[in-house]
Amino acid sequence: MDNIDYKKLKKDLLNKVGPSGIMPLIISVDSASNKELLRLAKENNLDISDYIKD
Fold first, then answer.
1. Partners of 52 in the beta sheet?
2. Which residue range is the domain that position 24 belongs to?
3. Which tens digits make up the pLDDT trace of 36-53?
């Protein structure tokens, strides 16, 4: 999945979990690998198709 904008995905995930104030969750997103970012996106109901680059 090389055509995914992981930087934008990470930013949006951090914006979603950041307000919770749950530091372990925020740190896990911030340090996640690309594969982990995809899993976290699914868990947080983010549509991966929004992050596919043309």
1. 4
2. 6-51
3. 999 999 999 999 999 998
Total structural domains within the chain? 1
Residue 13 lies in a domain: yes
Distance CA 46, CA 51 (A): 9
With tokens 């947080």, the residue in question is 44
Instruction: Specify the residue for token string 């995905």.
Output: 9
pTM exceeds cut of 0.85: yes
24 touches 51 (CB < 8 A): no
Q: Determine the Cα–Cα distance for residues 34 and 7; give it in Å rounded to an integer.
A: 9
In a domain, 47, yes or no: yes
How far is Cα 3 from Cα 19, in angstroms, rounded to an integer?
Answer: 29
Asked if 16 and 41 touch (Cβ cutoff 8 Å), the reply is: no
